């Protein structure tokens, strides 16, 4: 477990990154798994996934099937628009 900062929060937040989760045997790994959930626009978030791609409806649907549905309370960030 490591400490990091999420958004503009100045308090350290407990999290596990992809490498930490692979060591624990997870087969599907988001970029970050928060040990203590946060609220984003009134939604609970435990998993954060960042994609360095365009989030077209087609690619998003494929990611949903391949990866996202295995996470509960997820936040997905597309760095090149949706």
Characterization of this structure:
By secondary structure, the chain is an alpha+beta fold. It has a domain at 28-82. It has two helices and five strands. The chain has helices spanning 18-23, 57-66; strands spanning 2-4, 13-17, 32-40, 43-51, 74-78. It has a five-stranded mixed β-sheet. The longest helix has 10 residues, at 57-66. The protein is globular, with a radius of gyration of 13 Å. The N and C termini lie far apart (31 Å).
Describe this structure in a few short sentences.
The protein has helices spanning 18-23, 57-66, and strands at 2-4, 13-17, 32-40, 43-51, 74-78. The chain is of the alpha+beta class and 82 residues long.
Structural class: alpha+beta
Q: Compute the number of strand runs.
A: 5
Strand order of the largest sheet: 1-2-3-4-5
The fraction of residues in strands falls at 35-45%
The largest sheet, given as strand count, sense and whether it forms a barrel, is: 5 strands, mixed
Indicate the overall shape.
Answer: globular
Mean pLDDT: 78
**Percentage of residues assigned to helices:** 10-25%
**How many H/I helices?**
2
> What is the distance, rounded to the nearest whole angstrom, between the alpha carbons of the first and last residues?
31 Å
Q: What is the rounded Rg?
A: 13 Å
- What's the helix-strand series? EEHEEHE
Low-confidence stretches: 1-8
């Amino acid at each position: 477990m490591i400490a990091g900062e999420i958004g503009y929060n100045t308090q350290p937040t407990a999290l596990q990154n992809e490498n930490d989760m692979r060591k624990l045997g997870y087969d599907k790994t988001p970029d970050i798994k928060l040990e203590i959930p946060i609220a984003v626009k009134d939604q609970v978030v435990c998993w954060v996934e960042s994609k360095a791609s365009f989030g077209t409806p087609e690619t998003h649907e494929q990611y949903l099937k391949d990866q996202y549905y295995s996470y509960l309370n997820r936040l997905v960030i597309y760095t090149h628009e949706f």
